[in-house]
Structures
1.
Amino acid sequence: MRQLLALVLGFFSTLSNAQYCTSGGPSSTADSNIESVSLVGDASSIVLSSNCPAQTGIQNLTSLSASLAAGSNYTFDVTFGTCGGNYAGAGEAWIDFNGDGNFDPSESIGTWSGTPPAAVVNMNFNVPAGLTNGNTRMRVSQQEAGSIPLDPCAAFQWGNVIDFGITLTGGIDCSAYIGDDMADAVQISSLPFIDTNDNSFCYSNKNLVYSSPDIFYRILPISNVGSVTATLCGSSYDTFISAIKPDGTVLAFNDDDVNCGNQSTITFTPTANDTIFIVVEGWGNASGQFILNVTSSLVGLNELKADPFVVFPNPAKNEIRIDHFSGNIGVYDFLGKKVLSKQVNTNETIDVSDLKSGTYTIQLQREGNHYVKKLIVQ
Ligand SMILES: [Ca+2]
Ligand SMILES: [Ca+2]
Ligand SMILES: [Ca+2]
């Protein structure tokens, strides 16, 4: 088990993002070469009117970019030609519509085969609806002696591979989806906590346990919460869950909970002043809708449902009061650093004018029970 944990920790400590294959393309600058391209987009368009002398490898022209709207139709015009002699071959173009760093066969927007000099090829394509907005790539390949379908990552002797920029609009705006990494984690500010979400769009893979997209949740330091259980039972796909510290140390992980098939459950015991991330992902590439339930073994925390203590005003500027509460409070910033600590009497005013604008967590401690509240300072 220790060996497995060390292995998993090793994966966690190597953070990486999906990348495009960049080692393919032609080894020779002679002969077949893409001569011109045109893609008229909305706010911006790609125009390349000549392309000789040729380049080896993958030609990076992502500085040339077209903006395309989800659900709309466009035409990509390309001339498969030559910078030397005329030899038969094939051409193909792809747009990485789903932004995963791969040009999949389903993302091909058109093909050609023939011998230069050839007429302009008009590739008519539809941008799928429901895409996520943002920057992605188009790749165009001409491979002498090649045949359809081409491999967008292939290395060969004669031909040309060019990458262009694409900006997708009119789809899903991912700026509203938080939890993509540790810095943007979803705050768990009270227990029990329940969240439904979907990691099949707007999220990317940030750890290498599995390549499935991850969603990060954060629990701030809470002393004496007992054991915390986080379960994905009831989710719609084959899940994987883990609890990690900011340095990547793994506290717990699980693939399949015997009680709910291929969904996952972990139990771990936080120590005081820990910041812990609960990371939801899928087995392999699996993704979909999930339901996350986080509970604590301490009964006192469950009383939060009744919300006996109200922090007001919230958002606050200079001072707050906590209705009906007397006891110790600790205020923590989003990194889990304690920024204020105080013993308060019932309805006593608490000065928060020294706190910067932002979201904080207040932990209330009274008669052995802990309560966690969110505070926004303006
Ligand atoms: Ca793709
Ligand atoms: Ca992952
Ligand atoms: Ca699983």
2.
Amino acid sequence: MNCCQCQGIEQVFDDKRAREELEEYRKKGVKRTTRMLLGAVETAVSHPNSLLDIGGGVGGIQHALADKTERIVNVDASSAYLALAQEEARRLGYADKVAYRHGNFVDIAPELEPVDVVTLDRVICCYHDMEGLVSASVAKAKRLYAVVYPRDVWWLRLLRPLATFGLWAARNPFRIFVHSQTAVDALIRQQGFQQRYRETAGMWQVVVYQK
Ligand SMILES: C[S@@+](CC[C@H](N)C(=O)[O-])C[C@H]1O[C@@H](n2cnc3c(N)ncnc32)[C@H](O)[C@@H]1O
């Protein structure tokens, strides 16, 4: 992966952080917003044939849906997260139904088949080319497209330069983004999706679209 942001992703989402998150997941389960996303997905499609989880982290969505899903693809730009998601899937006994792909989803997308459900949980905010990421990922969804991403509010836009300064000072090329909600929503609807669920929790919005 030669994009600057992807190099930053490997630095930020490293083995130490991945192990801490896996420990937290084992103790407490998925985060509140992930629970909200899973609830809305399972209400809309109880047994998806196939799932594409982009930037799945330690794999909370995959672990929750594995029993009900035939085939899973996990694409992650962080090799540490991908390895731990696989380790946990092995422990839970379902790793053989998952294809693990390391890299930038935007680069890998042309090689992937469409699936029933596509999820991006707190991923859009980690990538500079929102249009490229959202368009390419919606194009892979046959039934549902589910996202958790930051609300487009002034106080988050105000905090972003502080986060950027901290990362710059630490010589980390990773950046955080607050993308326009109107632009994200328009890209998804352009490909024939309707909003089925939307809730907010703190800085996050959980949105599920159905075709
Ligand atoms: C904040 S973490 C979220 C992890 C998990 N989804 C969760 O909510 O706990 C962002 C994840 O997105 C991945 N990511 C960001 N941009 C990506 C891209 N363009 N292609 C693949 N993975 C990406 C990162 O490697 C990381 O695993």
3.
Amino acid sequence: MKFTFRGGTHLREHKDTASLATVRLPDPKTVAIPLSQHIGAHATPTVAVGDTVLVGQVIGEVTEGLGCPVHASISGTVKEIRKRDTVQGFLVQDIVIENDGRHAFCESVKPWHKPLAETTAEEIVSIVRNAGISGLGGATFPTYAKLQSAIGKVHTVIVNCAECEPYITANHRLLLERGETVVEGLEIVMHAVGAQTGILAVEDNKPDAIKLLQGAIAARGDQRMRVCVMKTKYPQGDERQLIYSLTKKEVPFGKLPADVGCVILNAETSSAISRAFYRGLPLVSRIVTVAGDCIREPKNVRAPLGVSYTELIEFCGGYVKPLKKLVSGGPMMGQAQWDLHAPVTKGTAALLAFSEEYDRINTEYSACLHCGMCVAHCPMHLMPNYLAQFTREHKYEEAERMGVMSCVECGTCAYNCPAGVQIVQYIRTTKQALRKKR
Ligand code: SF4
Ligand code: SF4
């Protein structure tokens, strides 16, 4: 049986980089590491200009509130601590490090000293926090906090290997090349939270990864873990759709997966937990899919955090045609970038460069045709046409009554709208207005 959810849509996949092995970006001359790479409080610098730093050394720490440390991704000298505007519209501090070419590791980078069976839940939470791990699927919620709140409350840990956005194949390559680390991460989290079931949820467009993971689980002989094969459909990777597909439980609005007994990790996050536990490696690099019709040689690249988009794109041969739009993340939920030199962060799953020809935004749209396509495809069972209309009329409370706050901004409605109504932009406006009011 293949698992699926109601609504959603089938997208052209464009996953041309799935067959290409991940390549490591040579250490750049400089990196600019942002002190805000996760949801929660910004980190404050723990180093000063002129300091020498080593790979894996803490360079920023969060002392109050939700957050985790930030580490140096190369060894060298701190050249500058500067402020930069982000695409989200707030200021962040970046620590600029000049490479000394040694790639020397900090002495704190060492494997955890106890076997998993003897490690407590609190120790695992601390390892994950100290490694600076936050959700690598793009959400960037600090993983330690997710685990902490799930201890003793969940029965199932799900590793989200859906990777349902077009173009992105970073997780697929990780499963093929380091699948065992994803399984190890699942085992560590199951141990921490006390879950009896572990699921690796993979879409059926990755048969090679499914086979490999099934083999890895069989080799471990752990009956508590299994691979669940899901139908390829967007947005299968959304947490609520994933839980519904696998368990047929709906997460009520305002509640979390833990409220229905589940905790969900992205595949690369799971692998990062294994690397932190077994090798002592903090999160200093990630796999980024660099693709889109403007890129000469699309690739999956393991890139150090803080390297600039420009450098990563040059490593992929640069542009073959004029760039219209650079997107961080997938084409459905990613964010268009205005700063082509911005740094790769923990949330950068992909960099997609599109020409005019591929930029699908419809600037000549008509009024709503009342065709119902958006309603039929919405995975959250909303009425996107009315939500857009209420925004146009500034009737935000009406939109709230119709559940606008539960919209996951997946873009499925706008993608299927024959009139080109920019439904998600309208919905975001309403959500912002309602949040401001509160
Ligand atoms: S209304 Fe929201 S959840 Fe529904 S399809 Fe549109 S963006 Fe997705
Ligand atoms: S898909 Fe577009 S045209 Fe059709 S009902 Fe929804 S908003 Fe209107």
